[in-house]
Design goal:
The two termini are 33 Å apart. 70% of the residues lie in helices and 3% in strands. By secondary structure, the chain is mostly helical. The protein folds into three domains: 35-65 and 75-195 and 316-447, Up-down Bundle (Na+/H+ antiporter like fold); 196-244, no CATH class; 265-307, no CATH class. The relative contact order is 0.15.
């Protein structure tokens, strides 16, 4: 939250007022969910345009360029595409880990009864799409992609729900967020357990040892971020060498980050009041520079303000924009470039890979989420979100079929050396996400009149 300061409290540069009138609305937009989705959508469109233009070969060649990072004898060399998918996406998974931890401690998943509805709905929304995909691809080599239709793209799904404004209750938005976070946790488990070809046990043991060390740091009361950052990088490198997808290190590192503040919040006001009293008593003979006493107080206020925030909360806040506006759009640019033609669009509804993904995301997600949630409510295991009614669960289920980011990510793991099948998978994901998004919006708009 940005503090609102009366003008008499501030010094203004000559053009600052004019700049504020332009930059303040821009800053508010950048921090909104709409900006996140717009950045992702824009890069997706750019990737599609490039992949279907005379620049297509150059576009694909760019992301296959090798890039090496080394220190002494240690060196990691991968293509730009792999650096984005295995490296930058670790920050995305780190953010997911922080969100999961927050929800488990203080969010919708902290209370068992409140958590039952999104947890059960998410499980249904993962199992049914996977079963539909397996039913369509049973006995075929393409069955390896069963994990692709299990995922939900939280940014796109929430953005569509936000477009409906006051038509949908806030409890429904909270339900979808909690559901998507459980969905992400399931996707991470699927990646770690089922999309690992071979294991180097010594490297995996090293990664787990680093993770244990991070938890030791946590229990020792180490609140500085640097030790966890260094441990996270080391665990990422060991995971990469082990054969387990390196982005899993992002989630594991996040779970080890302290989620409790160094200073108890109930004492924050008392500490600040003491410091403010000291600041008031300090000599004030300069309108521009602070004296030594004032500087000491300001630095102490900064430290208290930092220590009252859990490291996990600080990191989640500071990483949200870079991940949303840089990492995810770059991932879309590198992965969403699908060649489109009328023939391929027709094939999408005939090829078992794309058909399985479309059916899984559009039908499977809707049935899995809505039916499981309805059944949980009927059996008394859970209650509907406040202000919501049962028919809206169908709309949430449809929005859960917007798989995009995580689905493309899993498809890349399912067929790393088969561009033809990966092309079919991406085509299915794009079509399914469009169908699910538009139909979910239309359904919720209709039943929420």
């Amino acid at each position: 939250m940005k503090p609102e300061l009366p003008e008499r409290f501030r010094h203004f540069a000559p053009l600052e007022r004019a700049a504020d009138r332009v930059l303040t609305p821009l800053e508010e937009f950048i921090h909104s969910q709409t900006a996140t989705s717009l950045a992702l959508l824009s890069m997706t469109l750019v990737a599609l345009v490039l992949a279907n233009s005379p620049l297509a070969d150059s576009y694909h060649h760019l992301f296959e360029q090798p890039l090496s990072i080394g220190l002494g004898p240690w060196q990691v060399s991968m293509s730009l595409h792999h650096w984005i998918n295995d490296g930058l996406m670790a920050f995305f998974f780190f953010l997911i880990g922080l969100e999961i931890k927050r929800e488990l401690l203080v969010g919708e998943l902290a209370d068992l009864r409140a958590a039952m509805l999104p947890v059960l709905a998410a499980v249904g929304g993962m199992v049914v799409p996977a079963l539909i995909y397996v039913a369509i691809n049973g006995g075929e080599p393409t069955i390896n992609g069963w994990g692709t239709p299990m995922a939900t793209d939280i940014a796109f799904a929430i953005s569509v729900l936000v477009l409906l404004g006051s038509r949908v209750p806030s409890g429904l938005v909270t339900f979808l967020i909690a559901l998507a976070i459980v969905d992400d946790l399931g996707a991470v488990a699927v990646i770690a357990l089922f999309y690992t070809d071979s294991l180097a046990m010594d490297a995996l043991a090293g990664a787990l040892a680093v993770w244990v060390l991070l938890w030791v740091f946590n229990y020792m009361g180490i609140y500085k971020v640097l030790p966890y950052a260094l441990g996270g990088v080391l665990m990422w490198a060991l995971m990469l060498a082990s054969g387990v997808h390196a982005t899993v290190a992002g989630v594991l590192t996040a779970l080890a980050i302290p989620a409790h503040p160094k200073i108890r919040p109930q004492y924050f006001a008392e500490l600040i009041e003491r410091l403010l009293e000291k600041f008031r008593k300090a000599p004030d003979d300069d309108d521009i520079h602070l004296n030594e006493t004032q500087k000491g107080v300001v630095m102490a206020v900064e430290k208290v303000a930092r220590d009252v925030q859990p490291p996990s909360m600080r990191l989640e806040h500071s990483l949200h924009l870079p991940v949303a506006l840089l990492v995810i759009p770059l991932f879309a640019l590198a992965n969403a470039g699908v060649h489109l033609s009328m023939e391929e669009l027709r094939n999408a509804f005939a090829h078992p890979v794309s058909l399985g993904i479309i059916a899984g995301l559009v039908i499977g997600k809707m049935v899995g989420i809505a039916a499981t949630a309805w059944l949980a409510v009927k059996l008394g295991l859970a209650t509907l979100p406040q202000g919501a009614h049962a028919s809206q669960l169908i709309g949430v289920g449809l929005l859960g079929g917007i798989g995009f980011t995580m689905s493309i990510f899993i498809a890349g793991l399912a067929w790393p050396g088969d561009p033809a099948l990966l092309q079919q998978a991406k085509m299915g994901i794009l079509l399914a996400s469009l169908i699910a998004g538009f139909s979910g919006y239309a359904w919720l708009r209709w039943v929420s009149r």
